[in-house]
Every structure is written in C-alpha cells, then in structure tokens.
Amino acid sequence: MSPVWVRIQPSDLAVKCAYFESGLCLSCRHIRLPMAEQVAAKTRELQALLANFAVQAYLPPVLSAETAFRNKAKMVALGAAHQPILGLLSPSGEAVSLCDCSLYPDDMQRLLHRLEAFVRQAGLPPYQVSKAKGELKFVLLTRSQAKGEYMLRFVLRSHQAIARIERELPKLLAEYPQIKLVSVNIQPVHMAILEGEEEIFLTRQTRLEERFNDVPLYIRPKSFFQTNPQVAAQLYRTARDWVAEFKPASLWDLFCGVGGFGLHCAAKDISLTGIEIEAEAIACAKMSAAAMGLEKVSFSALDSTDFARGESAADKPDLIIVNPPRRGIGEALCRSLSEFAPRAILYSSCNPKTLAKDLAHIQGYAITKVQLFDMFPHTDHFEVLLMLEREA
Ligand SMILES: C[S@@+](CC[C@H](N)C(=O)[O-])C[C@H]1O[C@@H](n2cnc3c(N)ncnc32)[C@H](O)[C@@H]1O
Ligand code: SF4
Is there a domain that residue 27 lies in? Predict the structure, then answer.
C-alpha cells in the first residue's frame, strides 16, 4: 500500500476534484456536473417516484454551496505510525490523504493536516485490517458552524494508545483552542463498523455547541447530526414556517435526534413531544429546550413505532413531524398515523424511495407541498420535505 499525496494545482481549477479525476476518491460521483444539472436530475427522480400521488405544489429546490459545506469528516487511519495518512483506501487499494477534500471548509482542511502530524507525533499505529494489527482505526472531526469549534474523536482498537494521545493533546489544544471536545471511542471488533460502545472523554466538555437559526443545538459523539449545516438550517426554517401556518397547540417530533425540527417549531404555548431511540440525543434535546426556556416539552428515548402504538388516539397532537433514517417509518407507524389522523403530518426524508412506499400506506391525506433540499451535493442523495394535510 503506497501513500499517495494529491495537491490541487492552479492548472486543476477546471477540474472540480483532482482526487476524483485521478480515480483516487469516487465518493462524489456527479461532481463533474454543474450543480444546476445535479439538482435537475434529483428533481426528475423525486417527481417520478411521487408520480402516483397528487402533489399540489412543488416548491423550488433549496441549493447547497458547491464546496466547503460539510461539517463532519470520517477519516480512515492508514499508512504507518511514522507516516500516517488520514483519508481512505482508493478503489485500487492505495492509501489516499483526504485532508484537502474541498467538501470541508478551509480551517477544517488545515486542522485535518495538523491531525495527521498529531498522529505521527503521538506514534499512533494505524490499524491494518489485513493483519488485524495497529491501534488507530478512524479520526472523526465535527465542526460547529456557529463558532467554528470542533469535536475530535479517535476510534481505537483498545485502550493501549490512550496515554500517547493524552501526552500530545495539551500541545494540540494550545495551538487549536477551538477544539472543545476530545474523546476516544473503543472499537475492539475486527469488523467494518465505525464505532464501539465505550466512549472516553479526554476533555471536560462532552457536547459541542451549535446554533441553527436562533435555536441552540448540542452535538454528542454518538448522536445523529445533520452534515450540511447551511441546508439543514434552511430545512428547519422551512419546517417552522409550514408548521406555523397550522397554529398547532400540540406537536410530536418522531425520530427527533437532538430535536432540530421540534425545537424550531415549538413555542412557549405549544406542547412538544419528541421521541428518539438514542438516549444521548434526547439528553441534548432536553438541554436545548431548557436553554430556550420551553416548559411544555417532553423528550423520551423510545422507539417511535412503539410509542405511537402505545398512545391513545384521543391524545393525538394537532401535527406530527417524522424524520426517519433511510429505511423510512414503515407500515406499522403509517397505520398509527392514519388512525390518529392529526390535522397535518410533516415528513422529512433522506430517501425518496422509502418515502414513496410510506406515503402509499398513509390514508386520508393530501400532499400539499413538496420541496427538495440538496443536502448531499455531488451524490445521488437528497432531502425532501413534504406536507400532508388531512382531507376533509
Ligand atoms: C435522519 S435522523 C433525524 C434526526 C433529527 N430529526 C434531526 O433533524 O437531526 C433519524 C433519527 O432517528 C433515530 N432513530 C432510528 N431508529 C429509531 C426508532 N426506531 N425510533 C426512534 N428513533 C429512531 C436515529 O437515532 C436518528 O437520530
Ligand atoms: S469526497 Fe472530496 S476528495 Fe472525494 S470525490 Fe468528493 S470532493 Fe473529491
């Protein structure tokens, strides 16, 4: 496995990504296309998938920046302890440093380079999958857009290398005071999973503060958090505007994560129930609600389908927000929603195929508005916000 260093030269400016052009990283399969063409293709796909439904209005798509839009880097540790590489294995098996990937803001690219040096200085041997040897599996870096602060995580095979990280850390933190949270995740299993159960904090701070619009949000190591902050902030703002038209007295936010949707739509006189499977995300959502002075809120770590099954239709809210993972909400929850029959359902989906399947199982609603959010530029993926209103 030979290290490959690619620097973007001025002569490469006609090329969107030199890594892509040289076949070293193919993650952004549509990067050669102008953004407008990418979004046009996504719009066509969405409209084809929803062709069997009567959609009253498609609103203009919300576009992303072309570069520097991503707040999270998942770097595979490769190479050797004396010459570590943070990036990925190319399709032909070369170790490629992705510290210059243009999806990350400039300050994040600089920090990724510094982290490569950190790994070398600390003498952390990258884990070699073929030999099941080495310690460092991944470096995960998340940036808050509000203040340009960072959460830095090292995924290690065992506890062995923690002392070496602790030895080098004071120097790094003195140089980069914007790194607010550092942790080690122990992933002992010889498998392609990203992280393990055990998280060890090396800083006092255990959450990264973020703010979208006027809503304080908190990022914890294992909680889901949106990866394109500018588009996510617009998504939440749009949700807030659409929900406000209904003047709801009560809301449910199912699959709420750290609470982005519900907290944007809540107000002192609206009661909000947030449901999410990850307890750490729920702790973050509660902190945000407290910081916003919201009292009529209840966030619980539960399975959304079980929660809905256990609720009585008499206690149904005026409006239900759902934002499930890629698999969608599934038939059982669709049935519960149809039985509850709230005045409106706001569905935010990162997978239009499962969205279309779910819609076929939700009865008695008209699709009044659909909007595409280009949350994942250069890829096949996108986010869709869709408003369902109960038919009279
Ligand atoms: C696409 S994320 C959305 C999170 C949040 N709405 C946001 O805007 O950041 C989906 C969330 O569903 C959660 N989840 C997955 N399965 C779940 C289940 N069965 N019940 C409740 N939440 C679940 C995940 O942990 C994740 O936080
Ligand atoms: S992830 Fe970065 S390096 Fe890879 S293709 Fe996309 S822009 Fe290029």
Answer: no
Closest C-alpha residue for ligand 1 atom 20: 303
Task: For residue 392, give the DSSP letter.
Answer: -
Name residue, tokens 């006092």. 204
Point out the ligand 2 atom lying closest to the alpha carbon of residue 18: 8
Interface predicted TM-score of the whole assembly (ipTM), two decimals: 0.98
| DSSP secondary structure letters along 23-56 | TS--S-TTTTS-HHHHHHHHHHHHHHHTTTS-BS
Respond yes or no: is residue 350 known to be catalytic: yes
| 276 marked as part of a ligand binding site | yes
Which of 344, 320, 350, 340 has its CA nearest to residue 252?
Answer: 320
Q: Are residues 161 and 266 in the same domain?
A: no
Residues 146 and 192 grouped into a single domain: yes
Annotated binding residue at 284? no
49 shares a domain with 172: no
Q: What is the pLDDT of residues 146-199, one digit of tens each?
A: 999 999 999 999 999 999 999 999 999 999 999 999 999 999 987 667 899 999
**Is 226 marked within a binding site?**
yes
Q: What residue owns the CA closest to ligand 1's atom 18?
A: 303
Q: Is the pTM of this model over 0.90?
A: yes
> Ligand 1, atom 6: nearest CA belongs to which residue?
256
Q: The domain containing residue 308 runs over which residues?
A: 36-66+228-390
Residue 382 shares a structural domain with residue 239: yes
